[in-house]
C-alpha cells in the first residue's frame, strides 16, 4: 500500500501536500467553530463560496465580457468564492437581527447559497459541471501554487493562534469575562469570521465542499472528545486532520477511491471512536 | 479636589444603551475596603452600572471617574453569575483560572504562583488538574472567584455570585468574600437580590429605583421605608403613611426573619464571622 502511494508521489505530490495543508488549516479554524457550537456555519460558508464561484462563472459567460481574458480565469473564480465565503461568514457568524438567532441566519445563508448557485447555472452545462465538481470534492487538480498559498495560510493561522492563544480561548470560552478584562470581543468576532471565510473560500475551489466541511468540523469534534482542555484542542485537531488526510490518501490511492471522501470517511470513523473513548472515560 | 481613598466616583451619572438612560442622576463614591451591594428590581440598571465600570457602557451624561492606578482594568476582578462556557467543552480548573490573567504580562513562575495562591484562597488548592465539570456548583463558583482573584484585584465586582447555590455553599462563598474584604482590603461590589445577605455583609448599599440610585452606608439606605418604595411590598415595620426609617433587619417582621441556619455552618475558610464592614 505504501509502495504504491510512493509510486504515485511524482505525479500527485502537489495534490497530496495541498490536501494535507488544507486539512491542517481548516482543522485549526474548526476549533473556533466547534467551541462556539456553530457546526452548521462551516456548511453555510462552504455553500456561500460555491455561490460566489457560480456568480463568477455566470458573469464570465456574458457576451459583454467575451473578450475578457481574466473573467473566466481560475483565480477570478477563487477570488469570487473567497469574497462570498467571507460575506457569508460575517453574516452568519457576527450579524444580529432582532428576534433571530445565528442558527437562523446560518440556515438562510446555506439555503440561499445552495439554491441560487444551481439556479444561476441551470442552463449552463459547463457551469453545472463546475458546481458538481465542487460539491463532489476532488483535490487531484491542486498545483504548486496551491501548495504555496496553503503553506503560507497554515503558517499565518498557526502563528497567530500560538501568539494570541490566551485571549482567543477567553473569547471562545467566556465572552463576558473577555469583555471585562478588555479583550475587544467584537473585533475578534469579525477577524475570526474573515479568517474562516477566506480559508474556506480558498479551500473550496481546490478541494470541494465535502473535504472542506469535513476537515473543518470533524477533527475539532474528535479533539473535543479526546482533550482535557480547550487549549489542547488547538494541537490535537490539526494532528487528527493530518493523520486522517495522510491515511485517507494512501488508502484511496491503493483502492482507486476518491481521496477527499476517503479522508473524510476516516475522520467520521475517528469521531465514532472518540465518542466511545469519552464514554468509556466517563 | 482630593480623591483620598476614593476608587470610583460618579457625579450626576446617566447610563443607558439608547436615547433614554436606564439610570440617571447617580451620585456615589466607593472607597477602598468598602463592601457594596447593588440591589433593586430587575431592569433598574444594576448590570448596566456594573458594565460601565468595565468601560462597556459609556456615560450618557455626567462623569464616572475610576482611579486608573488602583481600580483600572488590571486591578479589577469580575465574577459572573455562572460560567458561560459551553458544557460540552473540556476544561480544567487550571485552564479556567489562568484565563483570568489575560491582559497581564507575567513570567511563567509568577503565573504558577498566582494560580496556586488563588486556588488556595478559595479552598481548592491542589485541584488545578481536576475537570471543571466534575465539581459541585459551589466549587465551580469558587473557581470563578479564583479566576478573578488571580489578577490580585483591588476591586472585585460580582454579579449575583450566589445564584443557584444551595444555602450551605452560598454561606461559604459569602463568608469567603467577607474574609477577602476584611483581611485583604479588597473593595467588593456585589449585585444581589438577597436582602438578608445585604444586611449581614454590606457596609454600603446602592438601591436602584425609578431610574436612579439611592446610595450610602447600609444603615442609612437599607430602611424599611426605602425597601417598601423600591419593591412596592410591605417590609417589616412599615406604616400606612410610607414606612419606617428603621434599618432593615432590626424588626421581627417577614424579611428580618431568616430561615437559614446562619452561624451554624462549619465555615471551612477560617471560621470567619459575618463581616466586611469598614
Structural summary, described in words:
Chain A contains eleven helices and no strands. Chain A is an all-alpha fold and 282 residues long. The longest helix of chain A has 42 residues. Chain B has a six-stranded mixed beta sheet with strand order 5-6-7-3-8-9, sandwiched between helices. In chain B, strands 2-1-4 form a three-stranded antiparallel beta sheet, with helices on one face. Chain B is globular, with a radius of gyration of 19 Å.
Distance between the termini of chain A: 37 Å
Task: Give me the oligomer status.
Answer: heterodimer
Strand order of the largest sheet of chain B: 5-6-7-3-8-9
Spatial gap, N to C terminus of chain B: 23 Å
Unreliable sequence segments of chain B: 238-242, 252-278
**What's the total number of strands of chain B?**
9
Overall outline of chain A = globular
Query: What's the alpha carbon Rg of chain B, rounded to whole Å?
Result: 19 Å
Low-pLDDT parts of chain A are none
Largest sheet of chain B: 6 strands, mixed
Which structural class matches the secondary elements of chain B?
A: alpha/beta
The residue fraction in helices of chain B comes out at: 25-40%
Q: Helices and strands of chain A: which structural class?
A: mainly alpha
- The share of residues in extended strands of chain A comes to under 5%
Strand percent estimate of chain B: 15-25%
Helix segment count of chain A? 11
Query: Would you report the number of β strands of chain A?
Result: 0
Distinct helical segment count of chain B: 8
Largest sheet of chain A: none
Amino acid at each position: 500500500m505504501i509502495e504504491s502511494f510512493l509510486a504515485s508521489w511524482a505525479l500527485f505530490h502537489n495534490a497530496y501536500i495541498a490536501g494535507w495543508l488544507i486539512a491542517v488549516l481548516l482543522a485549526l479554524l474548526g476549533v473556533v467553530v466547534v467551541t462556539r457550537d456553530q457546526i452548521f456555519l462551516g456548511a453555510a460558508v462552504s455553500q456561500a463560496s460555491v455561490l460566489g464561484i457560480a456568480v463568477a462563472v455566470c458573469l464570465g459567460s456574458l457576451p459583454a465580457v467575451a473578450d475578457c481574458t481574466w473573467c473566466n480565469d481560475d483565480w477570478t473564480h477563487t477570488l469570487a468564492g473567497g469574497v462570498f465565503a467571507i460575506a457569508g461568514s460575517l453574516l452568519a457568524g457576527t450579524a444580529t437581527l432582532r428576534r433571530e438567532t445565528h442558527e437562523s441566519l446560518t440556515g438562510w445563508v446555506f439555503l440561499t447559497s445552495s439554491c441560487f448557485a444551481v439556479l444561476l447555472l441551470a442552463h449552463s452545462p459547463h457551469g453545472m459541471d463546475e458546481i458538481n465538481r465542487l460539491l463532489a470534492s476532488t483535490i487531484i487538480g491542486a498545483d504548486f501554487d496551491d501548495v504555496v498559498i496553503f503553506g503560507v495560510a497554515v503558517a499565518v493561522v498557526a502563528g497567530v493562534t500560538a501568539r494570541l492563544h490566551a485571549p482567543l480561548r477567553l473569547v471562545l470560552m467566556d465572552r463576558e469575562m473577555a469583555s471585562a478584562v478588555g479583550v475587544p470581543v467584537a473585533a475578534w468576532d469579525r477577524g475570526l469570521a474573515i479568517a474562516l471565510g477566506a480559508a474556506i473560500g480558498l479551500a473550496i475551489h481546490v478541494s470541494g465542499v465535502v473535504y472542506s466541511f469535513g476537515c473543518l468540523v470533524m477533527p475539532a469534534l474528535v479533539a473535543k472528545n479526546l482533550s482535557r482542555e480547550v487549549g489542547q484542542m488547538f494541537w490535537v485537531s490539526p494532528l487528527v486532520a493530518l493523520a486522517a488526510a495522510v491515511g485517507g490518501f494512501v488508502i484511496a490511492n491503493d483502492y482507486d477511491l476518491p481521496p477527499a471522501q476517503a479522508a473524510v470517511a476516516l475522520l467520521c470513523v475517528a469521531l465514532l471512536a472518540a465518542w466511545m473513548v469519552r464514554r468509556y472515560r466517563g | 479636589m482630593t480623591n483620598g481613598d476614593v476608587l470610583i466616583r460618579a457625579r450626576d451619572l446617566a447610563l443607558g444603551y439608547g436615547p433614554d438612560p436606564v439610570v440617571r442622576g447617580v451620585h456615589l463614591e466607593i472607597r477602598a475596603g468598602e463592601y457594596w451591594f447593588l440591589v433593586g428590581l430587575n431592569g433598574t440598571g444594576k448590570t448596566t452600572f456594573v458594565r460601565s465600570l468595565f468601560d462597556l457602557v459609556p456615560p450618557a451624561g455626567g462623569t464616572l471617574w475610576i482611579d486608573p492606578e488602583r481600580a483600572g482594568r488590571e486591578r479589577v476582578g469580575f465574577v459572573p453569575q455562572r460560567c458561560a462556557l459551553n458544557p460540552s467543552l473540556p476544561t480544567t480548573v487550571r485552564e479556567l483560572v489562568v484565563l483570568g490573567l489575560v491582559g497581564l504580562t507575567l513570567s511563567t513562575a509568577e503565573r504558577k504562583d498566582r494560580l496556586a495562591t488563588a486556588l488556595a484562597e478559595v479552598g481548592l488548592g491542589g485541584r488545578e488538574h481536576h475537570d471543571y465539570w466534575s465539581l459541585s456548583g459551589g466549587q465551580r463558583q469558587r473557581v470563578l472567584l479564583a479566576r478573578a482573584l488571580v489578577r490580585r484585584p483591588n476591586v472585585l465586582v460580582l454579579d449575583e455570585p450566589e445564584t443557584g447555590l444551595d444555602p450551605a455553599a452560598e454561606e461559604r462563598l459569602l463568608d469567603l468574600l467577607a474574609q477577602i474584604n476584611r483581611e485583604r482590603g479588597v473593595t467588593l461590589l456585589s449585585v444581589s437580590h438577597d436582602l438578608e445577605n445585604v444586611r449581614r455583609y454590606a457596609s454600603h448599599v446602592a438601591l436602584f429605583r425609578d431610574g436612579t440610585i439611592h446610595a450610602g452606608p447600609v444603615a442609612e439606605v437599607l430602611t424599611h421605608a426605602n425597601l417598601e418604595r423600591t419593591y412596592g411590598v410591605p417590609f417589616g415595620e412599615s406604616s400606612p403613611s410610607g414606612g419606617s426609617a428603621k434599618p432593615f433587619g432590626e424588626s421581627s417582621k417577614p424579611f428580618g426573619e431568616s430561615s437559614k441556619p446562619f452561624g451554624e455552618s462549619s465555615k471551612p475558610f477560617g471560621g470567619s464571622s459575618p463581616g466586611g464592614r469598614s
